[in-house]
């Protein structure tokens, strides 16, 4: 922490950093802050596996490829910068402790935290933010990650087969990303990856144990390693193709609605504060999610009126990329060229 300054750097991708990258990060942070602390939350191996596979499917990986990834050796995934869905906590934590020191790496048991009625946000707020930082951070109990049912995962996989993230080796501009609010509401059985992966998890956690014994408290280790009832494979009755098509069409509409909502909420904020960094960032998020030519054209028109020419250029380019006739963009492109 620098004098009068607190930086929160958070993200699951931190677990993908290699030792040299962790060292480089430490050098950069220590040059600017008096104290640097690392906070990690560990959950039991099986629940991590279910969560990681869900997340990969939500990102657009096909179910078959995701399950193959779960079976792959960590060294196979390392060049892809994808962490194995079957975790190896010990080596990852060892690298962070080696760089930052054991006293500066705080490890918490996610399962015990949940049993105590907390989530990561509330736990971190209470235990790791100074009083000064707490004054400027809005504490929330709301979970941002919706748990998807097995039915929702199956439907999402079908949607991504219709609009895959990559097309002919290039990013697909029509890809429909995640849809937390929409798919999070679809009921059904809890998603599990299956009994075969439970056995893989058992091997992984046994391999992890000697290293974790040197890192975790006895209580945390016991909680992480307590036996949980087997769940077995969960069967999901296949939905008829017509129903899947209907769900896919509805979800694409919901996706468009969310993106437009984000765009116009950001545009309203910018009327009050033209330099609002969060609002400007949300205009780029909306650009990523919008994939209807008419919506992209109307957003580009607003951006031109507000003289945000660089963003207008991006919106016009994507509108043409997803099928807007070039002739329908001529006037806006002419205005853009006149002002750039």
What does the model show?
- The protein has 340 residues and is mainly α.
- The chain is 57% helix and 4% strand.
- The chain has helices at residues 19-30, 45-58, 63-71, 74-77, 89-100, 110-115, 120-128, 131-134, 150-162, 180-183, 195-213, 218-225, 241-272, 277-289, 293-305, 309-321, 330-339, and strands spanning 38-42, 105-109, 166-167, 170-171.
- Strands 1-2 form a two-stranded parallel ribbon. A two-stranded antiparallel ribbon has the order 3-4.
- Helix 2 (45-58) runs antiparallel to helix 3, helix 13 runs antiparallel to helix 14 (277-289) and helix 16 packs antiparallel against helix 17.
Query: Number of helical runs?
Result: 17
Strand proportion, as a percent range, falls in under 5%
Low-confidence stretches: none
Radius of gyration: 23 Å
Indicate the structural class: mainly alpha
Describe the structure using short key phrases.
340 residues, 2 domains, 17 helices, 57% helix, 4% strand, globular, P-loop_NTPase
SSE diagram, text form:
Layout: H1 19-30, E1 38-42, H2 45-58, H3 63-71, H4 74-77, H5 89-100, E2 105-109, H6 110-115, H7 120-128, H8 131-134, H9 150-162, E3 166-167, E4 170-171, H10 180-183, H11 195-213, H12 218-225, H13 241-272, H14 277-289, H15 293-305, H16 309-321, H17 330-339
Parallel strand pairs: 1-2
Antiparallel strand pairs: 3-4
Helix pairs in contact: 1-5, 2-3, 5-11, 9-13, 13-14, 15-16, 16-17
